[in-house]
Write a structure and sequence with these properties.
Blueprint: H1 2-7, H2 14-26, H3 28-41, H4 47-59, H5 67-71, H6 80-101, H7 111-126, H8 133-141, H9 146-166, H10 175-186, H11 192-201, H12 206-215, H13 223-236, E1 251-253, H14 264-268, H15 272-279, E2 285-287, H16 301-309, H17 314-319, H18 327-348
Antiparallel strand pairs: 1-2
Helix pairs in contact: 2-3, 3-6, 4-8, 4-10, 6-8, 7-9, 8-10, 9-11, 12-18, 13-18
């Protein structure tokens, strides 16, 4: 059936081409039990991403069209020894790839390190990063400690937040470097400290980060900016007992997204384009504490001030000290938050390794 499909010229998934080549060389009785384990590990995961990550270990950057060429490099598809070695590699790689994609599959580690790994994996998922996977795969093959893997994930999160979230660079700009790092880790040419140093050197400068934060628009009430503000506030409160938890943190637009007709807001911001610009500026955003009264979302500022004054968060109580909320106040607060966020993810975050 496979040969019939192949002869039609249709683009058959490389994963199944690879399996077929294995069966032709080693026989179904040898391949089937091992491939069933690979199938089980990859259930629900993307076969192409898995194969690219595996090929990257020895050949560096691998495109979809080069998957088989890179996996077969230095191997003959009719040589049983070569194909057995490749089959063993794919099995081990599938088990590790599952641990990278599903943090709950990572077991037999210190509970503290495991909790940190799960937390970091969830954060990376929140920011949509996948380019780091070949690096972690190489580290697992090299039996690097989970503390080392966590330190690398910490640096990856910093890069994702600075370069890709705030500065809005394309994540694929670092693919070649990351695949080179993965290859060098796999071949034992790159130790963990040097790897982390290389990743952090890719991060934009603090000055560029601050400007990017102040210029970026935040049109959605999403979990990414909630995570950013929560960590920034916790950095500010680090010497106090209060901690802003991850539950119940609604993002509040001080200048509301839909101000009422004839409100003071429209006197302060009469032009719609300017009003939108400041509505979605970082300086106009804050978090509600879990127990805060949030009933004044579209109210006038003098009404909102009373709610802010009663907040469990010092940031909100500071807002209540303002008599008005115009572009000047928003820009001043944007400078303040940019400074805190920059410090949080340049100094404080790095120490959480």
């Amino acid at each position: 059936m496979f040969e019939s499909l192949n002869n039609t010229g249709k683009n058959i998934e490389k994963y199944y081409v690879l399996k077929n080549d294995m069966v032709k060389c080693l026989g179904e009785a040898k391949v089937k039990p091992t491939w069933n384990k690979i199938d089980s590990a990859l259930s629900g995961l993307d076969h192409k991403s898995f194969l690219i990550a595996t090929a990257t270990l020895t050949k560096g950057k691998t495109s979809e069209s080069k998957i088989l060429e890179h996996l077969y490099s230095d191997k003959k598809t009719n040589n049983k020894t070569d194909m057995n070695q490749l089959l063993d590699l794919l099995l081990k790689s599938s088990e590790y790839f599952l641990k990278i994609c599903n943090e709950n599959q990572m077991t037999n580690y210190n509970n503290r390190d495991l909790l940190k790994y799960k937390n970091y994996t969830n954060i990376i998922r929140l920011f949509g990063m996948k380019q780091h996977r070949p690096i972690i795969l190489a580290m697992l093959f090299q039996k690097r400690e989970l503390t080392e893997i966590n330190a690398v994930l910490n640096a990856v999160i910093e890069l994702a937040i600075k370069n890709f979230y705030f500065d809005e660079q394309k994540a694929n700009t670092i693919e070649t470097k990351f695949t080179d790092y993965a290859r060098d880790v796999y071949s034992s040419k790159l130790n963990t400290d040097s790897l982390i140093e290389k990743i952090r050197k890719l991060c934009i400068s603090d000055n560029q980060l601050k400007e990017s934060i102040k210029q970026k628009q935040f049109p959605q009430n999403n979990s990414k900016i909630s995570f950013i503000l929560r960590n920034a506030y916790n950095y500010e409160y680090r010497n106090n007992e209060l901690e802003v938890s991850s539950s119940g943190n609604d993002v509040e637009h001080i200048l509301p997204q839909t101000p009422k007709e004839h409100s003071q807001w429209l006197n302060w911001f009469p032009e719609g384009e300017e009003r939108n610009k400041y509505t979605y500026n970082i300086g106009n955003l804050t978090l509600w504490h879990n127990n805060d009264n949030r009933s004044a979302k579209n109210a006038e500022f003098n009404v909102k001030r009373k709610k802010y004054a009663q907040s469990g968060l010092k940031e909100n109580r500071d807002l209540a000290q303002n008599n008005k909320w115009t572009s000047s106040e928003i820009e001043t607060r944007a400078d303040h938050l940019a400074e805190i966020i920059c410090t949080t993810f340049s100094e404080y975050w790095a120490k959480l390794e």
